């Protein structure tokens, strides 16, 4: 109970951004719970040690889980796939580009996950449009649709490979896969259009300005420090380049061919050079927790006929 009060106070300060005086209202509750804990300690040898013992074991379980997950994250960061490797794969004549959009899910925020190279080694095919998707929960209640998807293109552009971070609030719930696909493809097309607009602005000496979630172009005519004439206009579909229109139509065409979800499942084992303590924690304690405790439900239901799972062993 005391731990719950402390955690709620931290959430109110860091996430809900409440005033310190509002959080101070929980101080009497914390004092009562502290008195209750001290009363339990007076009868520690008469059976009151059971709650403390349970809390001790729960702390150990959470510590083991957190430690292995952090080691897994470090392994993915050290072994992430380079952009040069992706370019070699795309240019390799033995690698087929199949129609459709492929969504490869990973927990890696920065870079391309190492499971991608393992996937290509077993299935030498890449979808015509490939998106590396990472779903992350951020400490706010809701994230608007305009701010939910963050895209980055893996160069060069003609390969049509993207990275996407899907940001969700802790009270956001992903809809069914059809709505998610529509939102992702729509935001991807907007990203392509806006990126082309920004590149054109950089090439012509123009500047971009964002006002109230709307992107405008700043065109400077007779630019001097004193009498610069600036006109702002929003980019429209009617003024976009034919290449951009072709890219957007290509994305929509590939969506009609189908969207395939690829999930990477990593089996974590201790490295042969690891210490005995690390082997016990990873190979026995962590695997016991992973096999006997239910994992969280999937963020979004995915049709089984459109799901492809790829397994890989991580040695940490």
Automatic annotation (TrEMBL):
Domain K+ potassium transporter C-terminal: start-end pairs: 99-316
Record-annotated membrane-spanning stretches: 20-37, 49-68
Q: Does the keyword Nucleus apply?
A: no
Q: Which family does it belong to?
A: Belongs to the HAK/KUP transporter (TC 2.A.72.3) family.
Organism lineage reads as:
Eukaryota, Viridiplantae, Streptophyta, Embryophyta, Tracheophyta
Membrane topology per the entry is:
Multi-pass membrane protein
The protein depicted here goes by the name Potassium transporter
List the GO cellular component terms: plasma membrane
What region holds the K+ potassium transporter integral membrane domain?
1-84
Source taxon at top rank: Eukaryota
């Amino acid at each position: 109970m005391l731990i719950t009060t402390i955690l709620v106070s931290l959430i109110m300060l860091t996430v809900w951004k409440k005033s310190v005086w509002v959080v101070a209202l929980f101080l009497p509750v914390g004092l009562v719970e502290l008195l209750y804990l001290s009363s339990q300690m007076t009868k520690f040898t008469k059976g009151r040690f059971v709650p403390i013992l349970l809390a001790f074991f729960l702390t150990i379980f959470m510590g083991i889980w957190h430690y292995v997950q952090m080691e897994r994250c470090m392994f993915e960061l050290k072994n992430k796939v380079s952009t040069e490797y992706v370019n070699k794969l795309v240019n390799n004549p033995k690698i087929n580009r199949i129609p459709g959009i492929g969504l490869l899910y990973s927990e890696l925020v920065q870079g391309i996950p190492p499971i991608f190279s393992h996937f290509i080694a077993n299935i030498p095919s890449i979808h015509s449009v490939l998106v590396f998707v990472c779903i992350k929960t951020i400490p706010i209640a809701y994230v608007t649709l305009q701010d939910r998807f963050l895209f980055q293109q893996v160069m060069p552009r003609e390969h049509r490979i993207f990275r996407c971070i899907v940001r969700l609030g802790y009270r956001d719930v992903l809809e069914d896969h059809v709505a998610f696909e529509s939102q992702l493809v729509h935001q991807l097309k907007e990203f392509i259009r806006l990126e082309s607009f920004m590149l054109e602005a950089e090439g012509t000496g123009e500047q971009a300005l964002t006002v109230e979630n709307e992107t405008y172009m700043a065109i400077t005519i007779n630019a001097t420090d004193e009498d610069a004439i600036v006109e702002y206009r929003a980019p429209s579909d009617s003024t976009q380049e034919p290449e951009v229109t072709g890219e957007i139509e290509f994305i929509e065409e590939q969506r009609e061919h189908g969207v395939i979800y690829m999930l990477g499942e990593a089996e974590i084992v201790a490295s042969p050079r690891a210490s005995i303590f690390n082997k016990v924690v990873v190979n026995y304690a962590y695997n016991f927790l992973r096999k006997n405790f239910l994992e969280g439900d999937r963020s979004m239901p995915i049709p089984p006929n459109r799901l492809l799972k790829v397994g890989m062993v991580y040695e940490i």
